[in-house]
Amino acid sequence: MSAGCTQLVWGGRLHWGASHLLSCLLALCALWVLAAAEPTEGGSANVQGVGEAALYQGRGQHRVPSEDNVAVLSDQWEPSSFQPSSAFSGTDLGTMVADSYRGPGNSDRRSNKELPILLWWSENLFPHFPGDAERIDCPLSSCMVTKNKSVKLHKRTKSIIFYGTDFRAYEAPLPRLPHQTWALFHEESPMNNYVLSHLPGIRLFNYTATFSRESDYPLTLQWLPTIGYLHNPALSMAEKNRWRKNGYAPVLYMQSHCDVPSDRDRYVKELMKHLEIDSYGQCMKNREHPNKRLEDTSTATTEDPEFMAFTARYKFHLAMENAICADYMTEKLWRPMHLGAIPIYRGSPSVRDWMPNNHSIIMIDDFASPKELAEFIMTLDSDDEQYLKYLEYKKPGGTTNTFLLSSMEKREWGVNDMTAPNYLNGFECFVCDKENSRIKAEKTYKKSQQGGAAPEPHIADFNHMGCPMPTPGFGSAQEIPESDSWKQMWLQDYWQSFDQGEALTAMIQRNETNQDRFWDYMHETYIKRSMNH
Ligand SMILES: *[C@@H]1O[C@H](CO)[C@@H](O)[C@H](O)[C@H]1NC(C)=O
Ligand SMILES: *[C@@H]1O[C@H](CO)[C@@H](O)[C@H](O)[C@H]1NC(C)=O
Ligand SMILES: *[C@@H]1O[C@H](CO)[C@@H](O)[C@H](O)[C@H]1NC(C)=O
Ligand SMILES: *[C@@H]1O[C@H](CO)[C@@H](O)[C@H](O)[C@H]1NC(C)=O
Q: CA–CA separation, 10 vs 431, rounded Å?
């Protein structure tokens, strides 16, 4: 690879002419095909034959990172538009091109058959194409990566990478080998797998990439492509007021995923008693979408221009995440800010840490009741000057949060940015470098005849996810009847997940090799828990 291309891929901040970019892309693709064709030996997987179709089909299941966005405006696809799911899209050049991460610190000259192997347990996510094995050159060192599970017991297989949403305690690879670490990639909602929100579940992993800033490789700002995204101009006040006069409510709600742990509809239902809200999605729907084409895609993630123009007319957007957890923030928050609507937000309790300034969103939980919130919104609706104070972050110099600014500056991956690697390849390299330095440390320790200090284990902590038990969107759990579907579904799911983490931990501790015994362990865990109560 030419130095110029390496810089392009790694540096990401340089400005290059389009033709240079293109030739680098072509060169990289060619190199990549060569690398894939190079034979690998010694037990590492070198398996072709998984068809392109299968690869894309698999990835297709992961196309929609924010589970609420059920519909996709595929016919209006705009390649330039922001899709944080770029990591999953095999057709995205960004994924293909920027998957080499070799940094100036990497002087690794080992051949493929000497390199440690990282196994992607969730093969749908394997961020390489074509083939199912690949050499990766990372900032500090190199590894082989594969999705072929036949290497799972190999002594060179040093780490297994799991996708949180697909991780099933009853399908985990057993026995767990002492020389292997487990790595977790989970950028999606905590509701997709509550096992990871409990200590016994998260501690199964050594390295994590989650939405939490506390994880080893944080993906917290995955839905914010750039700071400039926030500075997109809002519709004028006059125009917004005109839409109000034309019969638009001050507040927009657009959600089609209704039975979620945050139980948001229970709150919205109360709020609607005191405040005009236009609801177009399947949840609490009270209006027909004026545009037939957008009707069944009203919760789309894409930045379809018509969809965006329509939603920008509203002064306020109800921005409620499907689950409540520190640092879990999605497009529900960032998109209204991009459009210049004020988010009325409930989701990450620590959301303020990431806001462009101290006066840019309205937090639902700052208000004692839906009625008080409604009164506040109505005041702002009739006071343009007070309203506009919430958009000052869009003015030059208006984005003052240095934590936000520096976090964006420091992040090494890009969102739909062809010049920066995506976070799947980034995390893979993070694990590769960690494993190589662990191998080195273990060798040094052995040579020292146990003289020095043994390398410390690295184990994920509760706060790498740590999402709290779901609570009702409005009122208290005691007031809600046992027959309520939210109560039946999410409280059970949450606590059953705790038991799953404990059961798997017990299986690992006892060197269990038979996955089928998982439910016996679950039963045992359940009995133990009932006895302790
Ligand atoms: C995985 O690799 C082994 C050995 O290299 C090979 O025999 C097998 O067919 C591969 N499996 C898949 C699913 O490609
Ligand atoms: C927000 O206000 C607090 C104190 O009121 C201050 O410490 C903090 O720096 C402010 N943050 C921003 C982004 O202005
Ligand atoms: C990985 O985590 C497990 C606990 O799940 C721990 O027993 C092991 O020592 C850790 N391995 C390393 C290399 O840190
Ligand atoms: C599990 O295996 C490890 C080493 O392979 C051994 O040290 C440990 O005692 C075993 N544990 C049980 C409960 O058999």
A: 17
